[in-house]
RNA sequence: GGAGAGAUGGCCGAGUAGGUCGAAGGCGGUCGCCUGCUAAGCGAUUAUACGGGCUAAAACUCGUAUCAAGGGUUCGAAUCCCUUUCUCUCCGCCA
């Protein structure tokens, strides 16, 4: 959420940002509502002041043993008027709030202006895509042939885009999760959190999934709970409504969770394999920082995620998302894309974003430095990494001509010393 | 699921026969004094949000709101009533 006062005082800056994002939102209704609201508020507050002053007077008179019927009668009417005005004001506030909640974040100056993902800018590459001496197979064929991934039974038991991992497949998934968590906690200084996999709507508003993107999520019937689309939601909201100690910043958390996405509007995309599932595993990195440090921390967070791919020996590239491809809450995002032979392309495996104070304002997460007023922290997060896609990348990049898969060295201790899936 | 108790400021904790309570006291924080240094001590100060005024912006100032959340009674609610949420204790159930 943007600062109400900022939008009021800098409508042109906001309009310009919306244009860069190709967001079709007009600010005019908002500005008009804000004007109305402030006027009504001033009127109501004047009346409330009168009521307070006179009520005090009534108390004084009664104590002195005098009656004050005329004043009581007058105040009865004033109170009724106040009630009506408060109703109007509340209605205006709700409208303003809703508008504000649906305005996306302002892109950072350094974000390339563009229409869509085609305008994303490559920042760097690591590793060389392997030259196969044979026709490489896609991971869904490898997984089925080795009997370690079962797509068909996933569909039978639940539905499309749900999958069973089996035997060495399940073990590999678990190994990747543990390897990532251990690396981030031991090497990169993150404190592990194991969050709830459901959150209430307030938390979803805090990180920006609601009110705009309700159709992307699974809601639990007859409750206010949603399945989390990412651990970002519970972990960022960990400090919802809190004032943090400045000396404790930055706070680094990493978290494993299952992630649930309705994938509304993704029909026909990535229909085969592990790439686009309704449920997948992810290790998430979340940071709370001082405003001055957030962009430096974004670089570090991205590097932490890249490190996993380097250790696993998976080629990747990093791109800066253009204004047209930037997520709703983000001010700047780097996508890390891993090389997938089946796609003959780099495919997103991590998204590292700086939300600046956008989420912090929604979730009311602040910090206090000495005696100064509380300020909003900056929040960041990134996948460190998407586990299913990592497993897919391992299967494809480490496949052998005879259909087996070599296990990357760092994962072998997590697989009981096993070096190959066959 | 049943019965009961509770929710007050950064923290702890007073305050309920409604009235000057944004809220005693303590802790913590900040500033000053004192002390060879540290500790201790003394004094002062210390909520947040929003709106208006004044500003380049602050500071400042005026006002409003906030004692879990929402509603009600009343001229007036931290205090009374209702609903919801959460916490704790006991019982039941359960991995």
Structure description:
By secondary structure, the chain is of the alpha+beta class. It contains twelve helices and 17 strands. Helices cover 40% and strands 20% of the residues. It has an eight-stranded mixed β-sheet. A hairpin with a 6-residue loop joins strand 13 and strand 14. The structure holds one RNA strand of 95 nucleotides.
Proportion of β residues? 15-25%
What is the average of the pLDDT values?
Answer: 93
Beta strands, count: 17
Low-confidence stretches: none
Q: Can you give the helix content as a percent range?
A: 25-40%
Enumerate how many helices there are, as a single number: 12
Q: For the CA atoms, what is the radius of gyration? A: 27 Å
Output the structural class. Answer: alpha+beta
What's the SSE pattern? HHHHEHEHEHEEHEHEEEHEEEHEEEHEE
Biggest pleated-sheet summary: 8 strands, mixed
List keywords for this structure.
RNA-binding, eight-stranded mixed sheet, elongated, 12 helices, three-stranded mixed sheet
In summary, what is this structure?
By secondary structure, the chain is of the alpha+beta class.
Question: What is the topological layout?
Answer:
Layout: H1 4-9, H2 11-20, H3 28-63, H4 69-101, E1 121-126, H5 139-145, E2 149-150, H6 151-157, E3 164-165, H7 168-187, E4 191-193, E5 198-200, H8 201-207, E6 225-227, H9 232-236, E7 243-245, E8 251-260, E9 279-289, H10 294-312, E10 316-320, E11 332-340, E12 345-354, H11 358-363, E13 366-368, E14 375-376, E15 378-386, H12 387-397, E16 405-406, E17 420-421
Parallel strand pairs: 4-8, 7-13
Antiparallel strand pairs: 1-10, 2-3, 5-6, 8-9, 9-15, 10-11, 11-12, 12-15, 13-14, 16-17
Helix pairs in contact: 3-4, 5-12, 7-12
The structure holds one RNA strand of 95 nucleotides.
């Amino acid at each position: 959420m943007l600062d109400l006062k900022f939008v009021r005082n800098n409508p042109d800056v906001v309009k310009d940002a919306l244009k860069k994002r190709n967001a079709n939102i007009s600010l005019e209704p908002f500005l008009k509502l804000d004007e109305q609201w402030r006027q009504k508020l001033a009127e109501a507050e004047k009346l409330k002041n009168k009521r307070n002053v006179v009520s005090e007077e009534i108390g004084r008179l009664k104590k002195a043993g005098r009656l004050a019927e005329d004043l009581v009668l007058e105040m009865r009417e004033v109170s009724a008027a106040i009630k009506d005005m408060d109703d109007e004001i509340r209605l205006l506030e709700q409208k303003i709030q809703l508008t504000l909640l649906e305005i996306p974040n302002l892109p950072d100056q350094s974000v390339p202006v563009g229409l869509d993902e085609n305008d994303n800018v490559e920042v760097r590459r690591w590793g060389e895509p392997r030259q196969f001496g044979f026709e490489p197979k896609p991971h869904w064929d490898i997984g089925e042939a080795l009997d370690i991934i079962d797509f068909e039974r996933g569909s039978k038991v639940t539905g499309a885009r749900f999958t069973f991992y089996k035997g060495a497949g399940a073990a590999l998934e678990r190994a990747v999760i543990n390897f990532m968590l251990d690396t981030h906690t031991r090497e990169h200084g993150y404190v592990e959190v194991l969050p709830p996999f459901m959150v209430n709507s307030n938390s979803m508003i805090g990180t920006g999934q609601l009110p705009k993107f309700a159709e992307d999520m699974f809601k639990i019937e007859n409750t206010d709970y949603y399945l989390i689309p990412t651990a970002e939601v519970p972990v960022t909201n960990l400090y919802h409504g809190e004032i943090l100690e400045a000396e404790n910043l930055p706070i680094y958390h990493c978290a494993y969770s299952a992630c649930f996405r309705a994938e509304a509007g993704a029909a026909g995309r990535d229909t085969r394999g592990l790439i686009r599932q309704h449920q997948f595993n992810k290790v998430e990195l979340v940071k709370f920082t001082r405003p001055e440090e957030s962009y430096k921390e974004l670089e570090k967070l991205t590097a932490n995620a890249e490190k996993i791919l380097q250790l696993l020996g998976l080629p990747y590239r990093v791109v800066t998302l253009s204004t047209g491809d930037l997520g709703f809450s983000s001010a700047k995002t780097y996508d890390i894309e891993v090389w997938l032979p089946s796609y003959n392309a780099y495919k997103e495996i991590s998204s590292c974003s700086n939300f600046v104070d956008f989420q912090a304002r929604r979730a009311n997460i602040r910090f206090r430095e000495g005696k100064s007023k509380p300020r909003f922290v900056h929040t960041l997060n990134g996948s460190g990494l998407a586990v299913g896609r990592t497993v897919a990348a391992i299967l494809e990049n480490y496949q052998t001509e005879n259909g087996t898969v070599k296990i990357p060295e760092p994962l072998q201790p997590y697989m009981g010393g096993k070096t190959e899936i066959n």
